[in-house]
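Protein modeling request. Please complete all fields; requests missing the sequence field cannot be processed.
Requester role: graduate student
Desired output: 3D structure, token encoding
Chains: 1
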Amino acid sequence: MTPGSWHKVGHIECIPRTLKSLRVVARAFGKETTGIITSEGVQRLLSPGSSPGEILGTRGGVDGAEITEKIGTAYRSRSGRGIIIRLVGAPECMGSWGGFKDVLAGTRERIALSVLEEGSPPLGG
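Delivered output (125 residues):
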């Protein structure tokens, strides 16, 4: 099996004029999904226990009202060096933990989210 390679599928960016909420944008299967990690979710991610943070999205209701619902989860990787984003209907993607903290501090505009594409089996095997 040849090693897999990382492919950019989205990004995490700060939402202007909010109290530490972040926008998550990911593209998969020809569809773009946008969600929000609320300030509460960010605080959970940064806490010593590193609890997962919810990712919320909105959709239009039957009567035209916007409905807010959970569309995914963000959590820190086991190594502690990455943030993992799991969205409904999309592959699990990962970004840099250091970059995530830089976005929160305002020293960086956004970080890339990437997905690991599986390698191919060896020839003749």
